[in-house]
Amino acid sequence: MLQLLFFWSNGCIRGILNVYRNTGVEGEQPFMIKQSTRRRIFEIIQVGNTRDLPSRAFDIVLVCAIVLNISVLLLGTFDQLAGFSEIFNKIELATVAFFCFEYILRIWTSDFLYPGRSRLESALRFLRSFDGIVDLMTILPFFWMSGFVAFRMLRVVRIFHLFRVNSYYDSFNVITSVIYEKRNQLASSIFIILVLMTASSLCMYSAEHEAQPEAFANAFSGLWWSVSAMLTVGYGDIYPITTIGRILAIIIAFLGVGVVAIPTGIISAGFVEQYTKAQNAALALETSLNTVLVDIDSKWLGKSAAEIETEYNQVIAVVRRGDALMQPGKDYRVEIKDVLAVYRKAAEKA
Fold first, then answer.
1. Residue ranges of the domains in the chain?
2. Which residues contact 66 (CB under 8 A, 6 or more apart)?
3. pLDDT tens digits, residue range 144-169?
C-alpha cells in the first residue's frame, strides 16, 4: 500500500513516502510507485484540458496561489497595511510551500516531458528550461536572495501558460515568429538608433553645456535628453535654450519619428508575411492533411515540430490541445492527447 502524507512544519513542506512490503511474497523488495501513477501526476500538473477535472482543478489552484503570492508582495509595501503583516507572512509561507511542492513534482515527472531520455537527463533538462528557471527563481528569494523577490513576478508567465495565452497560442506565436525571423533587421535598426542617440547626445552636450552646465553636466545628460526626444517621450526635465541647441533639437525630433518607424515597419511587414504564408499553406493543404492522435507510446511524444520535420519528413500544420487550436512555434513540444494535423514535406527540387 502506498501512502503520500504532506504536512506543514516550520514554514517548509515535508513529503513522507511510506512504502510497505507485499506480505504475500516472502523477501520481496518494497515496490516502487507505478509508472502509471507517475504518468497521471504528470498529466495533472501539466496544462490540462477542460475535460480533465483534476488537472483543471490543479491549474485553478496554481493560478490562485500565484495571484495570492504576488498580491501579498505588492500589498506588503503599503505602510497602511502593516497591521496585516502576520497574515501576509502566512499567505506567503503557504504559497511558497505549494510552489516548492509543485517544483519537486515537475522534476520527479520530467522524464514524461522529455521521453527517450533517462530520469537524470530529463531532470537536468527541465532545470535548464525556461519554466524550470522561472520556478526556481520565484522560490529562492523566500529562503535567501531577498533582494531578488521581484523575480516572483515571473510567475505571471505560468498564468499565461495555464490559460494558453503563451507562445503556443496562435497570435502570440505569430509575434514571436516575426521577431525571430526579422531579428537581423531589428538588430540593425536598434544599432542605428543607438548610433543616432549617441551622436545627438554629444551634439546637444557641446551646444548646451556652457549655457546650462547643471542640466547638461556631461554626455550622459545629453543621452538622457536624446532618448526622451528620439523616442517621442519628452519628459521636459531638461531642454535646450540656445539657438543652435534648439535647431539641433528640431532635427533630432524629426529623426526620432523616423527611427521609431523603422522597427515598427519591419514588424508590420513580418506580420503580413506570416499571415500570407498561413493562408497559402491552408489552401495548399486542404486535401493533403492527416490527423494524428498522440498517446503515451507515440514516437513523436516530447519532440519539437522541427525534430519531427527533420526525422520523419512530416510538417505539423495545426495542433488541437484540449479545446484550443494553435500553430506550433519553435518552442512547441508534442504532449499526450495532442491532435496533430500533419502533411508530408514536399521533396526539394534539385
1. 2-163, 184-269, 287-350
2. 95, 155, 156, 158, 159
3. 655 555 565 665 655 555 544 444 44
